[in-house]
Amino acid sequence: MINTVDKTIVNKTIVNKTPLRRLFFALALPNAVQQNIVQWRTDHFPPEAGHLIAAANLHLTLAFLGEVSSAKAQVLQQQAGRISQSGFNVTLDDIGHWPGSGVIWLGCKNPPRGLLQLAQLLRSQAARRGCYQTSLPFHPHVTLLRGAMRPVALPAKTNNQHFRAEHFSLYESVFARGRTRYNIIQSWPLAGSERTSDAI
C-alpha cells in the first residue's frame, strides 16, 4: 500500500513538472549590420582570440530572464506588449574585453535614453516576476567573442555600426547538436513597426 502511494506521488511530480526555457529580451540587429560586424571582427581578431559568435546570433540583450516556465513567459510577454515607447538610433562605437567572463564586445559610448529606458522597464518587470537581475548597471553591448580568457589586443577604433531600433524581441536560447541558436518567440513594435510572432 505504501509503495502504491509513493508511486502515485512520483508520477504526479513528473506530470506536473513543466519544461523550462532559457529566455531573454533583446534588440535584433539588421542583417547588414550583422554581416558588417562579422567582417570587421575577421579583419581585427585572430581565430585563437576566442569563440566566434555566429552572425545570426548577434544581438543586444535588454534583460536576461534565465530558466522560465511557459506560464511565467506568457505573463512576461503580456507585460512586454503593454510597453509603449518610440524607437531610437543605436551606434556601436565602443569596444571592450571582460577577461573574467571571457567576453569581447561592441557597445555604445553614449547609449540613447530610449535604450536605457526600455531595458530598465523590462528588467524591472522581470525582477517582479522572480527573474533574477544582476545589481550591476546595464551595459548595452553586442557580444563578439566568448571564451577570450587571455589578454587580447583590441582595435583602437570600431567601424561605428548604426541601426534604428524599431522593435524588441523575446528570444529563446536553444542548445542542440553542439551549437547554440537564438530563436525569436515574439516581437513588439517601437515607433509604429508591425508586430510579429513566431511559433516554436
From TrEMBL:
InterPro entries: Cyclic_Pdiesterase (IPR009097), RNA_CPDase (IPR004175). Gene3D superfamilies: Cyclic phosphodiesterase (3.90.1140.10). It is an enzyme of class 3 (hydrolase). The active site is at H59 (proton donor), H141 (proton acceptor). It catalyses: a 3'-end 2',3'-cyclophospho-ribonucleotide-RNA + H2O = a 3'-end 2'-phospho-ribonucleotide-RNA + H(+). A motif (HXTX 2) lies at residues 141-144. GO terms for molecular function: 2',3'-cyclic-nucleotide 3'-phosphodiesterase activity; ligase activity; RNA 2',3'-cyclic 3'-phosphodiesterase activity. It comes from the Bacteria. Its EC number is 3.1.4.58. A motif (HXTX 1) lies at residues 59-62. Keywords: Hydrolase, Ligase. Belongs to the 2H phosphoesterase superfamily. ThpR family. Hydrolyzes RNA 2',3'-cyclic phosphodiester to an RNA 2'-phosphomonoester. PANTHER family: RNA 2',3'-CYCLIC PHOSPHODIESTERASE (PTHR35561:SF1). This is RNA 2',3'-cyclic phosphodiesterase. It comes from Yersinia pekkanenii. The gene is ligT.
